[in-house]
């Protein structure tokens, strides 16, 4: 992280040393265009393959978005996408999901690689343009039917540009199921409107979600409650989970909306199941609680993300990486058809 800080300082010095702004912007545009071209061509290749195979209405496609700098505590989630991929294909388990779908079948899961976030930021691109680039990348995946984006974070700030892309591409708001220890709905956190603690405020004020259900909450401030009421969020706290279990394990979402978006912050789980997170919050969901919610959900899942896995905090020989990978595997099965 010290090297990243040095580079940011270096870019600031370049800007203040009277380097022509037009020259800097030209370089930034070239890097962003190259990044989008990379995603576009990978998505096109996978889309052509699936259309040639036939018999597939929807297939999940992995897109890594390694953002960590919008975290309020640790930046380790930026390193998560490759670790999750490694765990998905780890030889310690097979590639069949609990619902019987086979991940090696491209009609269930493909991969279009990562948005090169650090390379983009190294050019001095600000967060407004970075968020736009993430949105554009997701749209490029969705351009190639039957691909549907299954996004690997990164911190939770990525959910805003991804949900925005999905809603804009589909032409209307989606229903969002958000599993998390925190509501991430601060209007602005520590002066950062793109903080990982503010992503759902951006989603709701943009009108990208018709309904937002937040499940697993157990660290919520007065502002979190007030923001939830302001935006009409359905907040389910862990202290009442036993009472709410039947409802949450039999959800029916997406009717009257453009589909269902699922966002899973790994810290929704009790740290006994997933210690490798930046914000350890005891008293969370069990892994089977989460799977029951996912498996029983009725609705057309058009996109999803798994965020906030921090490899630098993974304490038990890749345990949390395997947990994140299992979530991705079951989401892939849920999304594909």
From TrEMBL:
Q: Has the keyword Hydrolase been applied to this entry? A: yes
- What molecular function terms (GO) are annotated for this protein? agmatinase activity; arginase activity; magnesium ion binding
* Spans traversing the lipid bilayer: none
* Enzyme class (EC, first level): hydrolase
User: Which CDD domains does the UniProt record give?
Assistant: Agmatinase-like_2 (cd11593)
Q: Which amino acid positions bind Mn(2+), per UniProt?
A: 156, 180, 182, 184, 265, 267
A Pfam family per the record: Arginase
The note on cofactor binding and number reads:
Binds 2 manganese ions per subunit.
Q: Which reaction does it catalyse?
A: L-arginine + H2O = urea + L-ornithine
Tell me where on the tree of life, at the top rank, the source sits. Eukaryota
Family (UniProt): Belongs to the arginase family. Agmatinase subfamily.
Listed name of the protein: arginase
Which species expresses this protein natively? Amborella trichopoda
């Amino acid at each position: 992280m010290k090297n990243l800080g040095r580079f940011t300082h270096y870019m600031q010095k370049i800007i203040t040393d009277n380097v022509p702004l037009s020259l800097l912007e030209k370089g930034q545009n070239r890097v962003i265009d190259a990044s989008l071209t990379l995603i576009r061509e990978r998505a096109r290749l996978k889309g052509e393959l699936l259309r040639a195979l036939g018999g597939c209405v929807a297939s999940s496609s992995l897109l890594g978005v390694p953002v960590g700098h919008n975290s309020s505590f640790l930046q380790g989630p930026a390193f998560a996408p490759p670790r999750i991929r490694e765990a998905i294909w780890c030889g310690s388990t097979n590639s069949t999901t609990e619902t019987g779908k086979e991940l090696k079948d491209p009609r269930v899961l493909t991969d279009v690689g990562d948005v090169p976030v650090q390379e983009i930021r190294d050019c001095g691109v600000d967060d407004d343009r970075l968020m736009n680039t993430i949105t554009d990348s997701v749209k490029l995946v969705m351009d190639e039917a039957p691909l549907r984006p299954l996004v690997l974070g990164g911190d939770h700030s990525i959910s805003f540009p991804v949900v925005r892309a999905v809603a804009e591409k589909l032409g209307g708001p989606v229903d969002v199921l958000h599993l998390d220890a925190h509501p991430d709905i601060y209007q602005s956190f520590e002066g950062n409107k793109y903080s990982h603690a503010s992503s759902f405020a951006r989603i709701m004020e943009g009108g990208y979600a018709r309904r937002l259900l937040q499940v697993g909450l157990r660290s919520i401030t007065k502002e979190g409650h007030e923001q939830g009421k302001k935006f009409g969020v359905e907040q389910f706290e862990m202290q009442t989970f036993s009472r709410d279990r039947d409802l949450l394990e039999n959800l029916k979402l997406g009717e009257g909306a453009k589909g269902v978006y699922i966002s899973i912050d790994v810290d929704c789980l009790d740290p006994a199941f997933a210690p490798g997170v930046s914000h350890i919050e005891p008293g969370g969901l069990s892994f089977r609680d989460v799977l029951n919610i996912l498996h029983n959900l009725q609705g057309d899942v058009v996109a999803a993300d798994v965020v906030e896995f921090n490899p630098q905090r993974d304490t038990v020989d890749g345990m949390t990486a395997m947990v994140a990978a299992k979530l991705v595997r079951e989401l892939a099965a849920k999304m594909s058809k």
